[in-house]
Structures are given as C-alpha cells and as structure tokens.
Design the sequence.
C-alpha cells in the first residue's frame, strides 16, 4: 500500500471530517460521537452510513443530529454497483477519514481506490488472528487466553491491513461468545476513540506496513 495523503486537517488545524459506517448497535460509533463533542478531540463526525435500515447505529446518529445514509446491497444489481454507490454516498460528505465501526461488509475496489489509505476498520480480535465476521467466537473456540481488538488501515484483504493500534483483553474460563465480545468492546471503544483522535490531530504515514503518527 502506498503512503496515504496526510489527514488534511492535521495541517490546517480544523477538525478532521469523519464518516462512520455501521451495521448494528453502534456502541463504537457512540463512543466517537461522544468524544467528538469536544472541539479539542480534532475530529467531527459529519455523517453515518449503514448497509441496512432500522439499526440502532443510525438511531444514535439521528439523536446526535448527524446526517445518515443507507446503501443496502439488496437494492443494487451487483456488488460492484453497490460498492460504487457506497463510495459516492460517502464522498458526498468529503471525509478526511472513513471509520468502519462494526460495518459487516467488505468494501470493494471502487471504495478503496476512492479513499485509499484513509479507511480504518476496527476488528474484535488481535490481527492477524481470527479475521472475518466471528472474531470473538473463533478466538474462544481456539482456546486462546488473551484476545482483543485491532484498528487497521483497510486494504483489499479481510482484516489484513497495516495496524494502527491493538488492545488486549483476557479470555476467562467461563466466557461465552457474548461475554467475551462485550469485554472486548469495552477496550475496543477506548482504543478507537484514542486512535481516531490521534489520526485526526497528528496525521499518519505508512512505511513497510508500519503505521506511524505524524506527518
Ligand atoms: C465491534 O466489536 C466490531 O469490532 C465488530 O462488530 C462490533 C460492533 O459493535 N466488527 C466486526 O466484527 C467486523 N469484522 P458496535 O455495533 O456495538 O459498535
């Protein structure tokens, strides 16, 4: 992956424009919405998008008076058409950074080309372990003693992009998937808020897969 352009607002001092994409309950989104109330946070959530209607994530955005949009795969004739429409909808809000926060679809080539190096995703496992849609369940089934969450810059693979940050949580003997995922999400929200703020305020660069803050 080439080095991304700096987040422009790290240069101008204006809050970075952030679009967040969600598919479900949106507790990670809520943490970002709450953090962004403080102008010193350095990022403003300018829109929230989803791949389905009627989810709590969209309701959270509504309650914060943040504009929302939906691009549902079933409304398009092909995955490619959906990918392009999603990119167009996000682009309309001129984001400096796009945050996938519980967005349960893979974005495609149009999307990645449009926002190259400016899309980050949070995944509930320690990458490169347990990629995909069932990170907590796969970690539990494997029997690991620690797991966690990873914030990474999205590339064309499944949870394979350069890592911005990771946070570790223990797996307890009596965990089920739900208990483990909830423990991960507590740590994940803090990691997301801390690091999206830093990306916005400081900018970042990628060399040999290593993500470093600063321009
Ligand atoms: C989060 O744990 C996020 O990492 C995960 O979905 C959860 C969304 O929670 N995403 C993935 O598994 C993507 N592969 P939230 O809707 O409460 O923020």
Sequence:
């Amino acid at each position: 992956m080439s080095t991304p352009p700096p987040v422009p607002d790290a240069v101008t001092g204006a809050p970075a424009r952030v679009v967040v994409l969600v598919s479900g309950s949106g507790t990670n989104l809520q943490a970002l919405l709450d953090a962004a109330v403080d102008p010193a946070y350095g990022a403003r959530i300018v829109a929230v998008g989803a791949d389905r209607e009627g989810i709590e994530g969209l309701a959270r955005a509504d309650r914060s008076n943040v504009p929302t949009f939906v691009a549902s795969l079933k409304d398009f004739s092909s995955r490619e058409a959906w990918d392009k429409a999603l990119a167009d909808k996000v682009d309309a809000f001129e984001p400096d950074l796009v945050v996938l926060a519980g967005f349960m679809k893979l974005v495609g080539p149009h999307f990645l080309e449009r926002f190259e190096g400016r899309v980050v995703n949070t995944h509930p496992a320690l990458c490169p372990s347990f990629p995909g849609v069932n990170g907590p369940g796969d970690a539990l089934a494997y029997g690991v003693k620690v797991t966690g969450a990873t914030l990474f810059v999205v590339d064309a693979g499944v949870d394979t992009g350069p890592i911005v940050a990771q946070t570790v949580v223990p797996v307890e003997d009596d965990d089920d998937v739900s208990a483990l995922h909830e423990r991960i999400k507590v740590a994940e929200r803090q990691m997301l808020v801390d690091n999206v703020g830093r990306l916005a305020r400081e900018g970042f660069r990628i060399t040999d897969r290593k993500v470093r803050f600063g321009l």
Observations:
- DSSP finds seven helices and nine strands in the chain.
- The longest strand covers residues 43-50.
- Residues 22, 24-29, 57, 101-102, 104, 122-124, 133, 135, 149, 185, 188 surround glycinamide ribonucleotide (CB under 6 Å).
- The helical segments are 9-12, 27-36, 56-63, 79-91, 109-114, 135-142, 177-202.
